Amino acid sequence: MQREPTEQFRSATQNAWWTVNRGDGPIVGTAIHNGHAMRSDARALVALTEKERLREEDPFTEFIIRDLANRIVVHRSRFEVDINRARAGAIYLQPAQAWGLSVWREHPPAELIETSLAVHDEYYAMLRSMLTAIERRHQRFIVLDVHSYNHRRQGPEAEPADIAEAPEINIGTSSMDRVKWAGVIETLISAIGATTLAGRPVDVRENIAFQGRGEQTRFIHEHFPDTGCAIAIEFKKTFMDEWTGKPDLEALRSLRTLVGSLVPILTEALARQR
What we know:
single chain; Aminopeptidase; 7-stranded mixed beta sheet; two-stranded antiparallel sheet; 34% helix
């Protein structure tokens, strides 16, 4: 029986750091900001409400990548430790690190910080091991680093962000060798642009709202410079109400179908790199 996107796997993932699904093929999907869970000691010190945290997390990105055989879903909230920040900035200690939000009631103790940073360390050790195995089997690989972003930051009744600066799907490529991977990126953008969502063409653009400067893509390009293509994909939160957290199930199913359809297209594009 297929799970719906509203299922959060609370009993299975409350104490889990992440879930890894390993299958065949060179395409990997990640949803590293999907998580909402926090350790009890960290949660006790957090000053934010559940809704405030959820608004800056990426709920339902796990659902969007669910049809990929290779995928990683992080269950810890970015407010406990942000896997997509460099280790030195992975704990939001200042409002400037967290969209102006004061995350903590008081400065977290050193022990709490180090416990959280250990998760960061373990994640990148796991990721490197997994990608090394995929590289060994397929020579090259593509990681779709899936995120989502808010476009109604001024409030639920305010006008959304200017569409000129907020594409439906933003492809971030600035941390890669763009010339080397041009064929893959152009194939991806072309494939997405040829589809429709809710009966309208998909607005997909490169390096507009975000540029793909997260730690995960940087790490992959550093450690797999000739074989790993990590692409940050940001979906505008038109698939949900970013203020209430309510999903649009039809829109989410469409995005899941879209991402799943990219696997054979990108696998072929990757083969042409050789």
